[in-house]
Amino acid sequence: MVQVVRGMRDLIGQDALIQETIESTFVRVFSSYGYLPQYTPAVESYELFKAKGTVGEAIKDEIYYFKDKSERELALRFEFTSSLARIVSTQQIKMPYKRYQIGEVYRYDRPQAKRYRAFYQADIDILGVEGLEAELEVMFVIRDCFTALNLKPRIVFNSRKLLNDLLKKYALGKEIEAMRILDKMDKVSENDIIKMLEEKEINPEIIQVIKENDIKKISQIVGQDSVGLKEIIDFQKICKDNNLDFIKFDSTLARGFEYYTGIVFEIKLDNGPSVGGGGRFDNLVSTYGGKDTPAVGIGLGVSRIFDYLKETGLKIGLDGIFLIGLDISSLQKNSIAGELRKSIFVETDLKGMKISNAIEYAQKKGYSFVGVVGENELKENKITLKNIKTGQQEMFFLNEIKEIKLFLAK
Fold it and tell me: Are β-strands 321-325 and 346-348 bridged in parallel, bridged antiparallel, or unpaired?
């Protein structure tokens, strides 16, 4: 028996409905802010990822890297940002450019509970805007996405500029190595972090400084002229002014990718797991030969949100009705279904099941309502609708679409 590839999974039935609900919710919210969809290949040139100033050569061990039959170095995408920068660096695109992308990405991690090698991600990015208005809009979008799913977000942020200023005091030219190590603080023990820093000859006292998360102490270390310090203060103010009280400063946040240049974010569910992250990456497009282009974006872990919603017992009901024909011809049943489909969703019983079996099937599939048409209903040009959950049922003329819709909305 052939099994699904290790670290990957299938989604069927109710699971697929939950996944579709998350994606369609995100598309609706993204579109409402003027973001347009973008599609890129799952396979990219490995050059895209190893270029200096992007994610770096070290990423090879963490991704699906391979060579094709012509010995070209390729990789499965593990995020969408590099592909976005490739497009913008090679095409004339009117700015600001606002795009979203939802799809599957791949990482060659060791499979663990809720950590997959193939998972879905949803990104939004704004290119061509220098000020914090871009970061602010991204926060609005995240708020609206989570509200639509009845979830509460908790976002922590930091500034790579501020972190760079701090690390100049402790890392002495090894800022990038230090950031990669500090980015693991929520994944490994503090002793392991200290050991990794010492191996790179980086002063581990930086850990205590950022753990205290005291902006006043940090300002004393970096000085009042720090651009990163000003960035933090300005972003805190703009969030407060816009009542975004779920966003907090966290000096331990690093984000491991080299291409981040300013404010960086991590998104968590209130009392739940981390489900996304991102930040500003002003230099990435020029890294690929394009023009200097200010950019900010964020990625949401659709698969992580899926796991959380499923664990909390979310069930997705199917709209419309499951139509059961009793002692009527297939032609008659399909004719009725066709007319009703002009206004509502209708699935028909294709097997001619007994009514009890048909109702059980509809219920398991996620329907709240069934429609029954037998010889009596057919003579009167009517349909019997039944609410499976409450047992309430009523008979309607087939042309009473308004009344049928009201009954289904109860």
Answer: parallel
- Among 271, 286, 311, the domain-final residue is 311
Measured between alpha carbons, how far is 93 from 97 in angstroms, rounded to an integer? Answer: 7
Other CB atoms within 10 A of residue 111 CB: 12
Per the domain annotation, does 3 fall within a domain?
no
For residue 214 the two structure tokens come to 């005291």
Q: Which domain holds residue 349?
A: 321-408
Q: What is the pLDDT of residue 72?
A: 96
The pTM (predicted TM-score) of the whole model is 0.89
- Residue 103 host element (H or E): strand 97-106
Q: Domain check: are 95 and 149 in the same one?
A: yes
Run means of pLDDT, 10 residues per run, the chain, 410 residues: 94 95 98 98 93 67 94 96 95 96 94 87 97 96 97 95 88 81 84 89 88 91 92 96 96 84 93 91 93 96 96 91 95 96 96 95 94 95 96 96 94
The C-alpha atoms of residue 41 and residue 43 are separated, in whole angstroms, by 5
Distance CA 193, CA 58 (A): 18
